[in-house]
Structures are given as structure tokens and as C-alpha cells.
Amino acid sequence: MRSRENLIPVYYRLAEDVKKQIESGELKDGDLLPTEAQLGEKYAISRMTVRQGLALLAEAGLIDTVKGKGSFVTRPRLNQLVIDLKHSAANNGQLRPKLLAVNLIRNNPELANDLGFTGESNVITVKQLLFNESMPVAIEEKFLRYQKGKPLLETQLEYADFPELIAKHQESVPVRNDMVISVAALSAEQAKLLEADEALPALVIKQVIYSKDDIPLGVSVTLCHKDRFELKATSYPLSGRL
């Protein structure tokens, strides 16, 4: 029986070995890696295969190859954060939605601009209140391009994550989620829904989901109570892909 190690391509093992040396501190930022010929001799592989391994390391942001000079170690970058909205909330992060309204809005200039319409626009709006246990935590409004003949089921409206809802409702495949985080004061209506004081500062999370053709497929705006919601993010360097 072939071992797992034998099933892993040699160029991938090369990349993993170099990654471990970088993460352990054996190889430091700016260090020059052995030449392609030296690596080929060490792993008993061709230069083409060595280049495949170096390409993986470069894609993971662990090395920088300079033509005529070689490949240099670069420190893993930790300035990119991954936000998990599904588990961002007070306590255990299990939010319970309550559907407030579903409407069809025609020819709203602001929504048409956000969703990239060039002519007549029909937009489905979904508004819901999110609870953590019995406490209202956030107000979420979703805006989707109207798709004739593709009704939204109640279970999709209440429980689907926004990207998942977009994927179920649109014919195009969502590939990018742009997010803007800001602060705003609660209106009288919003304060009443959140059982909070009017004009209390609130966290606003706006998401715009795009297709591969850079067409906006949907917009979500979540208004979060400042004391009942916490936004969690983790830094995953590109090297985590290896």
C-alpha cells in the first residue's frame, strides 16, 4: 500500500518543507533559498518540478522570486482579516431571525445604483430582526435583483446566509463579497425595534456581492446594537493555503 507521503506530489512536499522552515524561524525574512539546481538535487526532481513548488510558495506569499537573483523569503503578512459574520455576535453567536417584511421596490435610484441597473429596476427587499436569545441584536435589510419566475421561499428568507441566499436566487454565481463597516445613529424606528435609546451609535455592515463579471447581485445592510454585537475577525496569512 502506498503511504500518504508517496501520494503527495514532490513539488508540494518541497513547498511544505520550506514553509515549515519559515514558520519555525529557520529561514528568516530576506533569506535566499537554495538555487533551483540545488533543490532539484536535494529532492531528486527536475527544475520544472522545482519551479512548481516555488510557484506554490510565491502564491502563498512566502517567497519573492527576483529574475537573475533567486528566490527570497518574505515574512507572512497578517494584515488581511477574515470576518465570519455568521458567528459574530454576543455570547455564542447563534442568532435567531424574525422576518419583518418582504417588498418589491420599483425604480429606486439609490438601489438601482448599488445593484448596477441601467434601466428600469425591480428590487426585492427583505427586512428582518436578529435576536440573540430574547434580546434584539441587529436589523438586517437585504436587497436583491428581482428574478421573474424565481420566488423566494420563507425558509430561504429567514435562515439563509446572505451569500447563500444570493446563490439560490440568482442565475449568476456569486464570487466576491465587498464589505464596508461604518457607524451611524439609530433612528426612532430602529431604536424601537432594537429596544434601545434613539440616536445611540450603531455598527453598520454593508455587503455587496458580485458575479465573476463584476455585476452586483445583491446588497445587505446590517445595523447592529453597539452593546449586543461584536465583530470577530481572524488573520489567515496566504500561507494557510499550503
From TrEMBL:
<protein>
    <submittedName>
        <fullName>HTH-type transcriptional repressor YvoA</fullName>
    </submittedName>
</protein>
<dbReference type="Pfam" id="PF07702">
    <property type="entry name" value="UTRA"/>
</dbReference>
<keyword id="KW-0805">Transcription regulation</keyword>
<dbReference type="InterPro" id="IPR011663">
    <property type="entry name" value="UTRA"/>
</dbReference>
<dbReference type="InterPro" id="IPR028978">
    <property type="entry name" value="Chorismate_lyase_/UTRA_dom_sf"/>
</dbReference>
<dbReference type="InterPro" id="IPR036390">
    <property type="entry name" value="WH_DNA-bd_sf"/>
</dbReference>
<dbReference type="Pfam" id="PF00392">
    <property type="entry name" value="GntR"/>
</dbReference>
<dbReference type="InterPro" id="IPR036388">
    <property type="entry name" value="WH-like_DNA-bd_sf"/>
</dbReference>
<feature type="domain" description="HTH gntR-type">
    <location>
        <begin position="8"/>
        <end position="76"/>
    </location>
</feature>
<keyword id="KW-0238">DNA-binding</keyword>
<dbReference type="InterPro" id="IPR050679">
    <property type="entry name" value="Bact_HTH_transcr_reg"/>
</dbReference>
<keyword id="KW-0804">Transcription</keyword>
<dbReference type="InterPro" id="IPR000524">
    <property type="entry name" value="Tscrpt_reg_HTH_GntR"/>
</dbReference>
